[in-house]
Amino acid sequence: MSEELRVAVDRRNSGAVLYTKGYINNVGGEEIANRAYELMDGGARTLLLNLRETKIVNSIGISILIEIIEKMIDQGGKIAFCCLTPVIHKTFQIMGLANYATIYPDEETAVKELDLQP
Amino acid sequence: MTDTAERQMELILPMVADIEIAAARAAGNLARELGMSGDKIDEMTHAIVEACINAREHSCCADKRIYLRFVGTADGDCSLRIDIWITDHGRGFDVQQARSRRQQLGPAHKRGWGLQIIEAHMDEVEITTSSEGTTIHMVKCEKKS
After folding, report:
1. pLDDT band with cut points at 50, 70 and 90 for residue A12
2. CATH at residue A81
3. Residue pairs between chains A and B whose CB atoms are closer than 8 Å
4. Residue B76's pLDDT is what?
5. Within a domain: A1
6. Residue B82 distance to chain A (closest CA, Å)
């Protein structure tokens, strides 16, 4: 069965907003990582992941997200998340992702705080 | 006579990529039929996903199957309960060792969170494991006002 994750990227002046749609498992996590690393190689230092259309994640996918956050921190940048379902937010907290990245309730607040206006 | 509605479902699923989604959807549909709220269903489905991944990744079973049973009850005072059994016929594991290994690794280690996620999302979790396989019995409850 296919649960392919799709990632749309909206480049902003200092970074980008990544919109995910679908299941964040190992394959989905790698897809996000590929897009994030391309952006980081291109100079982006602030990434916002909008998970509005992701309703399910697993621990392997989240472990890949933590790897992306760590690489970004190593490069002096930051990654944030917004629009999480309550259970995804809770799972992020269990795995400690919330210790490495800021989680915003909505995109408007996140974009303002992160200076990622279009 | 008791005023109790019960629904049951049994599935045997192959250990293939993303099969955990089929299990989660089946349980979610049963829970929705019983009237469970969306947030409770989401917690339950995430626990099922982790349990199925653990079975697929770690059981090393010969038959490459996951056996699932869901029993949902809604009693007269509007209390909902879903019992879930997820079984593999693999080699089993040491539950205490798995828990203590996770604690020793600490938060910096990124893998091995499945059991913690299951326990955080469910109301009751019981694991029975031996060299002939593992069953994880999980319960999700909801009091309806």
Report:
1. very high
2. 3.30.750.24
3. 64
4. 65
5. no
6. 18
pLDDT score of A3? 67
Structure tokens at B98: 């798995």
Q: Exposure pattern of A41-76 as b/e (b: 16+ CB <10 Å)? A: eeebebbbbbbeebbbbbbbbbbbbbebbeebeeee
The Cα of B112 is separated from the nearest Cα of chain A by a number of Å equal to 8
A3 and B21 within 8 Å at the Cβ level: the answer is yes
- Three-class secondary structure of residue A81 per DSSP: strand
CATH 3.30.565.10: does it fit domain B5-143? yes
Q: Across the interface, do A87 and B24 touch by the CB < 8 Å criterion?
A: no
Chain A interface test: which of B32, B42, B53, B122 (most A C-beta within 10 Å): B42
Which pTM value belongs to this model?
0.91
Tell me the average pLDDT across B90-108: 76
Q: Is the pLDDT of residue B77 over 70?
A: no
Query: What is residue A118's predicted lDDT score, i.e. its pLDDT?
Result: 86
Give the neighbor-by-neighbor strand order of the sheet with B65-74: B5-14, B65-74, B79-88, B133-143, B124-130
Instruction: Please list every residue in chain B whose beta carbon sits closer than 8 Å to the beta carbon of residue A27.
Output: 17
B27 near A CB under 8 A: no
Does residue A14 belong to any structural domain of this protein?
yes
